[in-house]
Amino acid sequence: MVVLNKIYTKTGDAGETALGDGQRVAKHAPRVIAYGTADELNATLGLARQHAEGEMDARLARIQNDLFDLGADLCCPDMERDHEAEYPRLRVAEAQVARLEAEIDEMNGALEPLRSFILPGGSALAAHLHLCRTVARRAERYAVELATMEHVNPAAVRYLNRLSDWFFVAGRIANDNGRADVLWVPGANR
């Protein structure tokens, strides 16, 4: 359980922060950038939810919770020592990836195939979901880069990869099941 009685601690004033295992690292360390970008994605998703309702809002709420799981996963290096931790480490599970895949397939089933790239926009929700998609791609790039230097849970990387696809398809759903998608017209302004 998390208890936050005091919000500022002054322990980061010298440019360092603590990882989930207590290790102190620079605030610009690749691991901090990776989980910080996942946090940024979560905040962006909070904005999108202001325009969502019903099942879409419920799905977005689940993803927000998953993103905290992802941040907890990324902030704890050295998975090989998870069994030594005082409390079980929270790791993204393959079931979370599978849920995204099932939802993508279900949403995509309601859509006509694309015959053009689409421009980010349309409804307010779709525009926000496209922003979420691009931040998810950036978070994925940082996690993949981190994985070239340190161990990263492969399910966490797969989750981010599927999540950006999920946001793309959900953006189309938010645009009247794709009927209000804004299509790219190559060379239209030459």
UniProtKB/TrEMBL annotation:
Keywords: ATP-binding, Cobalamin biosynthesis, Cytoplasm, Nucleotide-binding, Transferase. It is found in: Cytoplasm. SUPFAM superfamilies: Cobalamin adenosyltransferase-like. Pathway: Cofactor biosynthesis; adenosylcobalamin biosynthesis; adenosylcobalamin from cob(II)yrinate a,c-diamide: step 2/7. Its EC number is 2.5.1.17. GO terms for biological process: cobalamin biosynthetic process. The keyword Cell cycle does not apply. One of its GO terms (molecular function) is ATP binding. GO terms for cellular component: cytoplasm. It catalyses: 2 cob(II)yrinate a,c diamide + reduced [electron-transfer flavoprotein] + 2 ATP = 2 adenosylcob(III)yrinate a,c-diamide + 2 triphosphate + oxidized [electron-transfer flavoprotein] + 3 H(+); 2 cob(II)alamin + reduced [electron-transfer flavoprotein] + 2 ATP = 2 adenosylcob(III)alamin + 2 triphosphate + oxidized [electron-transfer flavoprotein] + 3 H(+). PANTHER family: CORRINOID ADENOSYLTRANSFERASE (PTHR12213), CORRINOID ADENOSYLTRANSFERASE MMAB (PTHR12213:SF0). This is Corrinoid adenosyltransferase.
